[in-house]
Design a protein that fits this description.
The chain has 338 residues and is α/β, with parallel strands linked by helices. Helices cover 56% and strands 11% of the residues. The protein has helices at 3-11, 15-27, 29-45, 51-63, 68-84, 93-106, 134-147, 164-175, 188-202, 218-235, 253-265, 284-292, 313-320, 322-337; strands at 122-127, 152-156, 179-180, 206-210, 242-248, 270-274, 296-300, 308-310. The chain has an 8-stranded mixed sheet, with helices on both faces. Helix 2 crosses helix 13 (313-320), helix 5 (68-84) packs across helix 6 and helix 9 runs parallel beside helix 10. The longest helix has 18 residues, at 218-235. This is Signal recognition particle receptor FtsY. GTP binds at residues 128-135, 210-214, 274-277. Involved in targeting and insertion of nascent membrane proteins into the cytoplasmic membrane. Acts as a receptor for the complex formed by the signal recognition particle (SRP) and the ribosome-nascent chain (RNC).
């Protein structure tokens, strides 16, 4: 059974998994249109797998922002696998690429893509530069957690950006979640103190904290986040339980640079990759995992509230190669009718 078929069979019969898989397919349309169509053209151009084929494939992967190190690793793996399986026909390479992409993402350290919840109150800190979709992601995550039966409270800790508090407050009302806030220009640590106290007194399950997104002055940002962390940890030992970094997928390699900078100033435990549906360079997911060793925990696959999806490498690869799977199934049906 082909890798594509195994992927589809894995999610078949599970309504929730099938719906999520379909969101990946729709959300990765731009990447798939550029990336997969180029691979299809390459397969049509070459009838046999040779070094010229590999060189052009390498260029396609680099253009998709998969990242240099990941591409080099993938090409080595592909050359070995093609030789091991005695693959001569280029049409069979797509399935091998898919399998190796999943293996590369899952290789190395054991890092869960699931959120780390505490037994009592869970505190999630959101960090990220302005304009990456951080506030929207906070609201979508709150909506998701509410639908899972958890009570949620938000903290408006980005007190420096004009309109940030009001923006989070509006989103809070939309998803039916209270927002703890102070006036613009207030000390973010004071907001966090109030929010933690309110969360404890109300007995909520999850407190999601917004923070300022200024990277212009790394020293100030570090001091600010250290103070926020200290205040939270003093009230709840072991908190924050997650530090999620929001990155805009459409910025490509710039997202990697931002991630590296935030990694230097705070303990980032996971990535929320926004606007993945808006880029043709969805390979950035693999570059983040390979270069930074930080798990992608959520991906933004559209504008709707339910379009913030937990990251699943197999669904991601399915989304990249969905048309290839559909064609392969059609070919199997045609061969079965003969």
């Amino acid at each position: 059974m082909s890798f594509f078929k195994k992927l589809k069979d894995k999610f078949a019969g599970n309504a929730e998994a099938e719906e999520s898989t379909e969101k990946y397919k729709e959300g990765l349309t731009k990447t798939r249109t550029g990336f997969t169509s180029k691979i299809n053209d390459l397969v049509a151009k070459y009838r046999k797998v040779d070094e010229d084929f590999f060189e052009e494939l390498e260029e396609i992967l680099l253009q998709a922002d998969v990242g240099f190190e990941t591409v080099m690793e993938l090409m080595d793996e592909l050359r070995y696998e093609v030789q091991r399986q005695n693959v001569r026909d280029t049409s069979r390479v797509q399935s091998v690429i898919s399998e190796k992409l999943v293996e590369i993402y899952q290789a190395g350290e054991e890092q869960t893509t699931e959120l780390n919840f505490a037994d009592d109150l869970t505190v999630i800190l959101f960090v990220g530069v302005n304009g990456v979709g951080k506030t929207t992601s906070i609201a979508k995550l709150a909506h998701r957690l509410k639908n899972e039966g958890k009570s949620v409270l938000l903290a408006a800790g980005d007190t420096f950006r004009a309109g940030a508090i009001e923006q989070l407050d509006i989103w809070g009302k939309r998803v039916g979640v209270d927002v703890i806030k102070q006036s613009e220009g207030s000390d973010p640590a004071a907001v966090m103190y109030d929010a933690v106290r309110a969360a404890k007194s109300r007995g909520v399950d999850v407190l999601i904290c917004d923070t300022a997104g200024r990277l212009q002055n790394k020293v100030n940002l570090m001091k600010e986040l250290e103070k926020v962390n200290r205040v939270i940890a003093r009230e709840i030992p072991g908190a924050p339980h997650e530090v999620l970094l929001a990155l805009d997928a459409t910025t490509g390699q710039n997202a990697l640079i931002q991630a590296q900078m935030f990694k230097e100033v705070t303990n980032v435990t996971g990535i929320v990759l926004t606007k993945l549906d808006g880029t043709a360079k969805g390979g950035i997911v693999l570059a983040i995992r390979s270069k930074l060793k930080i798990p992608v925990k959520f991906v933004g696959l559209g504008e709707q509230m339910d379009d913030l999806q937990p990251f699943d490498p197999q669904k991601y690869v399915y989304g990249l190669f969905a048309e290839g799977l559909d064609k392969e199934e059609a070919m199997e049906l045609l061969e079965g009718d003969k």
